[in-house]
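Box 3.1 A note on notation
Throughout this textbook, protein chains are presented in two layers. The first layer is the amino acid sequence; the second is a token string describing backbone geometry. Keep the layers aligned when reading.
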Amino acid sequence: MYKDKIEEIKKELQEVFKNINNLNELENIKVEYMGKNGKISLLNQMIKDIPNEEKREFGILVNELRSLFSEEYDTAKNNFEEQELNQKLASEKIDITLPGRKIKRGSLHPMTRITEEFEDIFVSMGYTVYEGPEIESDENCFQKLNLPKGHPARDAQDSFYLDGEYENYLLRSQTSTAQVRAMEECTAKGPLRIVCPGKVYRRDEDATHSHQFMQIEGLVIDENISMADLKGTLELFCKKILGEKTNVRFRPSYFPFTEPSVEVDVSCFKCNGKGCSLCKQTGWIEVLGAGMVHPNVLEMSGYDSKKYQGFAFGTGMDRFAMFKYGIPDIRTIYGNDIRFLKQFDRKDEE
């Protein structure tokens, strides 16, 4: 009886494998015969009705049937997979005689370029690049820079203060806050020479201004530092960035954290100082502010102002990028317009 059943399934398989057309049908056949309730699997249930002396022969025949199915299945599967691969290769042929397609190449953002150029110049002069957090305490942002409470520069309308339990924190309005941190971290309270690049934030209703822009500030602290050191440093910096023919002018000014303080102008690189629309017919363009570090600032960060002196300077890197690359509007820099940004890929070759 069981021999007839096994022979019947064997004949079925011969016909079934002849009529399979694809892998899906093949998988369905596998489930039908070898699945949990498949025809071959169910043969095991017959063993309880088979005499003991015949059970060994039954097991051999069932295993032979399983082996037969596996051989037929593997052969059919390999054939179908080979057919699919050949069809895929035929449909994906590449004409190697066609010219190659140019791969689009990215480039550094103009602000990345100007930042790296600034850092390279100052590092070559012995400075260390120091970066601070963009969220700062009121104390670091104002008080330790000699701007006590009530000072006009602390007006909440000019800064982005945080709410709730962080009301004494704000988005830094100047990278000078990094200078405070660097002075405090210098436990030896000895010489210090750093530049601090980064983003700063200020509220501004002027449509030509940006609420976010990039600054870089420098700080030098040592014994016997004078305005002559500041002047020489800034003249060298401006000539490196804007060209050796650049003239530099210093004008008296006021900043709470420096004394004396100066505004620094450079000769207009567009008209060579003759006067044009860019320099508003003056022949000069204001580029940065600087001065000797106020003794109060040194003392609040743990330095002995009678032993050490220092100078500090700060400028907007966006402004230099606009001058250097001829960018007419600061908003263009942060617009993420690919038509604007892709112009700078050729700068990699210069």
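Residues 52-91 form the longest helix (40 residues). The chain has twelve helices and ten strands.
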